Amino acid sequence: MNVTSTYEFCIIVPIYNEEENIKRLAEALSLYIQQASVKTCVLFVNDGSKDASLTGIKEVCSQHEHLYYISFAKNCGLSAAIKAGIDTAESPFVGYIDADLQTSPEDFELLLPYRNNFELVTGIRMGRKDSFVKKLSSRIANNFRRMMTHDGAEDTGCPLKVINTIYAKRIPFFNGMHRFIPALIQLQQGRIKQLPVRHFERIAGQSKFHLWNRLISPLVDCFAYRWMKKRYINYSIESANIK
Questions:
Q1: Shortest CA distance to 12 belongs to which of 79, 63, 75?
Q2: 183 with 172: CB under 8 angstroms?
Q3: Predicted TM-score (pTM) of this structure
Q4: Which backbone phi and psi does 121 adopt, to 5 degrees?
Q5: Which of 49, 164, 210, 212 has the fewest Cβ atoms surrounding its Cβ within 10 A?
């Protein structure tokens, strides 16, 4: 048991070299927590940042209530950071948002009302404030992924998500996992709901994505997902006498 078990909703925030965003991020999240419809906390996951992100995280966690962190010894990647957050959280529901604040924590209020009826509630970024190249590569990757997975997800790259923690903890872990969260929930017969959310320009720090990890790598990962899907084991226990 850890402190996250006393909350209904835990927002996981992966951090990698985001020192310029930490204070602004903490302020936005703390403001949201005050008005959230359910008791909410934040779990920062420092993914082996090489800048002063960890120092900033420790500082804001000491200044604001309901903010917590874990920190990797070295950089392990976005999927590992999300998975570590899920593994650590003990709240009934977990959320996910990127540190760049291109989506707003306030929009969790659009997703949370559906949390009891769907195992995953995810955003669709409307009016994306990204470059033409980024939007085009995302569209190609999304279309290919839908063709390969049949998950029906319009915008799997949207970081704004609310997930039933039981289902989240059963998500198979592999590099690139974060791109397949809707499909991986559906493998468990989970239901998904998609809703439009706002999108904003990045105003501080630098994007960690480039052509390889925005387009080429997701296409390669689709084949890994197809291999895993054929071998995925899903079971439910009907009865038992273990107390």
A1: 79
A2: no
A3: 0.82
A4: -120, 120
A5: 212
Side by side, the strands of the sheet bearing 9-15 are 67-71, 40-46, 9-15, 93-96, 161-164, 120-125, 192-197
Cross-strand bridge partners of residue 93: 9, 164
What number does CATH give the domain 3-231?
3.90.550.10
Contact residues for 96 (Cβ-Cβ < 8 A; gap 6+):
11, 12, 13, 82, 85, 159, 160, 161, 163
**Mode of pairing for the β-strands spanning 120-125 and 161-164:** antiparallel
- Phi and psi for 87 in degrees, rounded to 5? -65, -30
Alpha carbons 161 and 89: distance in angstroms, whole number: 15
- Distance between CA atoms of residues 26 and 56, nearest Å: 10
Cβ–Cβ under 8 Å, residues 173 and 102:
no
Instruction: Using alpha carbons only, give the angle 159, 191, 149 rounded to the nearest 5 degrees.
Output: 70
d(CA 141, CA 218): 6
**Regarding beta strands 67-71 and 161-164, do their DSSP bridges make them parallel or antiparallel, or are they unpaired?**
unpaired
Q: Please identify which residue in the block is written with the tokens 């197809």.
A: 226
Radius of gyration over alpha carbons of the chain, in Å?
Answer: 17
The pair of structure tokens assigned to 69 is 């962190």
pLDDT in tens, the chain (243 residues): 799 999 999 999 999 999 999 999 999 999 999 999 999 999 999 999 999 999 999 999 999 999 999 999 999 999 999 999 999 999 999 999 999 899 999 999 999 999 999 999 999 998 765 555 566 566 666 666 566 666 767 787 888 999 999 999 998 887 777 888 998 899 899 999 999 999 987 666 555 554 555 556 666 677 677 767 777 767 676 778 776
